[in-house]
Every structure is written in structure tokens, then in C-alpha cells.
Records
---
Amino acid sequence: MSDTKKYVDQWLRDAHAMEQQAETILEGQIDRIRHYPALAKRMETHLEETKSQRERLEDCMERRGISASGLKDASAKFTAMMQNLGGVFAGDEVIKGALASYSFEAMEIASYRILAAAAEADGDAQTAQLCRDICTEEEAMAEWLKEHMPNLTVAFFDRANADDTEAKR
Ligand SMILES: [Fe+2]
């Protein structure tokens, strides 16, 4: 097996683990940001996209004959990383969550850009196209988060300064 093929297979497994982790993170965040309906709605849309991304990756891996073994190891790696990113949830968890989400999207964008180029190098145009398609969805999510950071910050202060401890989420 060529190194190119070997790495494409390995990185697809990593991407699959990354999407599994993204599902867990999004589900947790949507639950915590109920006071921010626009953010919650966008996160719900991205959760559906993320599930579809995971399924498309599974189809792709099956087509390439990649076994499911090793998925747990890669998944554990991302779990540990995200525990670090998301570890500081205090009263400003909506802001910390936005930071963690944007960082996660940046990692996804980089991963799929690398994978698309790697799949092209491996002569697998179908996988390359899938990675570009998924990358477009991640970029849209990252762009939305970036655009809405200022409004989210203002909304956070509105709630934080309100006489309501529930609001500080
Ligand atoms: Fe994703």
C-alpha cells in the first residue's frame, strides 16, 4: 500500500472521529444555550449537517475498504483534546462555547482541506469532492460564528447584568 493511500485512510478515520466528537459537543452546547435562540438554531442546523457528514464519511470509508478498527483510538484522542478546550465552563460558558466552536470549525476546515488534497494525490476524485463539500459546510458555520461574535457578546452582557442568575449562561 502506498503511503499516500495509507495516510488518506488514516485521516478519513480521524475525520470520522472528529465528526463523532462534534456531534457530542453540539448536543451539549445546544442544551446550554437555550437563552440564545439564534445561536441555538444555527447549532441545530449544524448538528444535522454534522450527522450527515459522519454518514457520508462512513460511505466513503466503506467504498475505500477502510475497516472500522482504530476508530475508538482516534475518537479518544479528539475527546481528550476537546475536554481541554471546553474545560472552563463558568458563568460565561456561552462565550467560552463560541470560542471552542470556532476553534473546532477551524480544525475541521484545515482537516478537510488537507484531506481533499491528499485524496487528489491518491487519485480518488470522489473522496476529494466529498471533503470539499464538507469543508464548505464547515466554512459557512465558522463564518456565521465569526459574524455573530459581537452580537453574542452584547447579548451575554445584557443577560449577565440582568438581575437573574439563570441569565448568566
Ligand atoms: Fe463537521
---
Amino acid sequence: MPRFPAAIESRLPDVGTTIFTVMSRLAAEHGAINLSQGFPDFSPPAALVDRVTHHMRAGANQYPPMAGAMPLREALAAKMAALYGTQYDPEHEITVTAGGTQALYTAVACMVRPGDEVIVFQPVYDSYIPAIELNGGKAVVATLQYPDYRPDWVAVRKLVTPRTRLIMLNTPHNPSGSVWTAEDMAQLADIVRDTRIAIVSDEVYEHMVYDGARHESCARHPELASRSFVCSSFGKTVHATGWKVGHVAAPRELMAEFRKAHQFTVFTVNTPVQLALADWMQDPSGYLELADFYQRKRDFFRDALAASRLQLLPCRGTYFQLASYAAISDEDDATLARRWTQEVGVASIPVSAFYTDPAQGQHKVLRFCFAKNEDTLARACEKLVRL
Ligand SMILES: Cc1ncc(COP(=O)(O)O)c(C=O)c1O
């Protein structure tokens, strides 16, 4: 293949291959148990897969409406009203997206102008800052304090300037497993009150909150709901990260802007999966029982590691467990994660990868994904307790 004949001034000069791809590749090369990337090693509900096939065979294979199949938007509106008490209009206030990633990206793209500032919290999910920078914005980073990963609201308030356009948050939080409280939401509302700041709330783990706590959605808080893009993903909820279907809810004025960008990026999302998800949502137990399902996995994983020298941090939500290896090794987390993948046979993610400056996030902590069959978790733990 001939080479491109000019120098490319990269729009994202600092972006390389993501740590998730690197670790998954390394795990495959070395036959390691892959607890790195966040995806289940079990299947979506069989009845849901049957509904996808049903809709394909029934001929639902052409474009759905730009904003998503109406039965799915209606089901999402009903769920959000029942769980969070806010009534979104499916016609104007809910859009189905190609996964959570596209929901987040498009929310940023439709709001951020060159020079605008966007406050993000680190450890930060890897798509946020590139999305901001591709749209000419500047990421302004607040740090969630180790080991609790709680927001420091005094510090956040100081980061707000007249150029702040968005605040992006993630609860339940990847990678830390922390969840924001009603008090956090009240603090956030206080900071944005009387400003033009909008909020992009990444709630892809909304149905994975443990120990009887409740998910504090921005949709639950009327003041925040009035300025938020509430983003989520079926990938996490139905054990089908590869289907790439997500959704966003926002007040009509924000959603009108979102759809202008959405229609020229993906336009819409595949029809049969949307219709199948709408059918599946008719029985709320599918998503309401997810927290118990994953809490059992969390407890299984933690119990199996109790005899190890890893120190387990609290996990209040998501399907990630953080563990400090400070009692085992002095190596930095990226070196150790690679070595354990090769030599121990268990792949994890170094948490420093979620920091703009990995040296700042060097707390000797690894992230393990427990969205796996118990057999997979047991085999991994057997190896980890020997260390
Ligand atoms: C915090 C967070 N946001 C967004 C996403 C992306 O969701 P999706 O796979 O639906 O694009 C993920 C996936 O891992 C995530 O962990």
C-alpha cells in the first residue's frame, strides 16, 4: 500500500492503543484469565436473543426512526419515570444510541465549542477527554481522592470558570466502584445553579448498585435533570457489550441539539435489537434483579480473595473490584499488570491508566472485572491467593 503523501498533524497526538486492548491482547497471547476488559463471559438472556431473531425474521431490518424505535423509547421513558420519578417524553427527550460511548461523544459534540472547558473526574473513563479535545474543548480535571474516590466539592467549585460548558460525571464509577450519594448530587446542583453549565451523566452501570443503596441518577434530581444528558447502555444491563446499544435522556432543548449531531454521525441504530430490547423491558425484573446478580458475584470474588495478600477496596457498584497490591510488590501498576498477565496468568487493568498523568494515579491498585462465571473467578483467585 502506498503511504499517505503528507505529514499528518494529529488531532489526538497523545492517544495510542487503549490499555483495554493492550491487556486483552496480552491475555490472549499468554492464555491468561482475562479479568481486564469489562465484559461478561456469559450470554445475554436466551429469551432476548430469541426476540432479536424473531424481529429479524419478521422483517424489521430497515432503518428505524432517527431517534430510535418508538417502542424502545417508550419503554425507557416508563422505566425512568418508575425508577427516577422524571417523566421524559419519548418523542422529544429520549434517543437510542450506538452504545454509551456514542451517547457521551454526541452529547459533548453538540455542546462544546472551541475554547470551552469541560470538568471531568479522574480516574476518568478513557473516551471522555478525546471526545472533548476532538471538539476543540479543554478538559479540566478534578481528582477523586484515593482510597475512597469521593469528589472534593470545594476543589471542584474552584475549577468552574465562565468558560465551563459541561461537567461530565460517572456514577456508579468505573474503575473505582464508588457511587455518588444524594449529598453529592446536591453539591453538584449547588455548583451549577445560575450558570449555563450542562451535565453529561454517564450512568451505564445504573442497575449495579449494591448493599441496598440506590442509584442517584441525575434524572432523580429535578434541578439536575433540567440540564443533564443522562446516558446509559444496554451493553452492561443485558450482558451484551458487543450489541452496542445505549440511550440518552435529556430535556427537549438539549435533545434537539443532540439529535442534530446524532443524525449526521450514526443517524440511527440497528432495528431488530431495539425492538427486542423493548420487548425484554416489559418485565422489569430483568434489570431490577441485576444488582443482586452482580452483588453475588462481587461477594464470591471477594470471599475467594480473602486469603490473598491483596487488599480489597470497597465496591459499591459496577462490576469492577479494585485491589491494592502494596503488600506484595513495589512495582508500578502497569509493569505489574503486564507481569502478572504473563507469569501468573491473570490479566487486570492498572488504575493509573485512568489518570491524565499516570504518575499521579500511582496508588498500586489494579482493577479486576468480576462479570465472569464463578468457575472463571475461582480459577483466577486460586492463582492470586498464591502471591
Ligand atoms: C464508564 C463507562 N462509560 C461508557 C462505557 C461505554 O459503554 P458502551 O460499551 O455501551 O459504549 C463504558 C464501557 O465500559 C464505561 O465503563
